[in-house]
Write a structure and sequence with these properties.
The protein has 182 residues and is mainly β. It has strands spanning 4-5, 13-19, 24-31, 38-46, 51-52, 55-56, 62-66, 73-79, 84-93, 105-110, 116-119, 127-132, 138-144, 151-157, 160-164, 174-180.
Length: 182
């Protein structure tokens, strides 16, 4: 019983920008567990990473239960603009057994517009997602291997699809998107 956020098939994180006007929100999507015993999902989040020595400790501040086993997304509201949030998910069965944590994803709540990422089915060694933003807003997709140095890969008008065909060249690669202010 496993849950993967955004259908990732390699070790890595996806970073993305989110936004709202007064309060922020994040829409988190995942691939459903293939297990028929899944009763639902728990989406965990907080303002600090739960990653310790390359493993997810599960030490998050909040959790949102998703009690529908066929659900593939949840929107978390009431987030503070400008704050970085860390997200991970698990699946659980009716007996209370819980899967391991999914890879952690990170988002900074923006002050304008909203960006939601949805996974794309890609070829092996590639990763892809759809960037949905405010109508006619410009968004940039950036990648990093160390969370310090970022390279811009694509700037486009929302909504658009992004596919990194070079993903397999990296042992891990982090992604983020940001809305470019008008």
């Amino acid at each position: 019983m496993r849950v993967k956020l955004l259908l990732f098939t390699f070790t890595g994180l996806l970073l993305f920008a989110m936004g709202a006007k007064a309060q922020g929100s994040a829409t988190i999507s995942w691939s459903p567990s293939p297990s028929s015993s899944v009763a639902g999902y728990d989406v965990y989040y907080g303002t600090s990473s739960a990653m310790v020595n390359g493993s997810n400790s599960g030490n998050y501040q909040w959790a949102v239960p998703v009690l529908n086993p066929s659900a593939t997304s949840v929107t978390i509201r009431g987030l503070t603009p400008g704050v970085t949030y860390y997200f991970s998910a698990t699946s659980f069965d009716n007996s209370g057994n819980q899967s391991g944590y999914s890879p952690e994803i990170v988002g900074v709540v923006g002050s304008n517009g909203s960006v939601t990422l949805t996974s794309l089915v890609t070829s092996p060694g590639q990763i892809g997602f759809t960037v949905n933003g405010a109508a006619n807003s410009q968004s940039v997709v950036q990648a990093s291997t160390d969370l310090i140095h970022w390279v811009s890969l694509l700037t486009n008008t929302a909504t658009f699809n992004f596919v990194d065909s070079n993903a397999s060249q990296f042992s891990h690669r982090f992604y983020r998107t940001a809305t470019i202010p008008n």
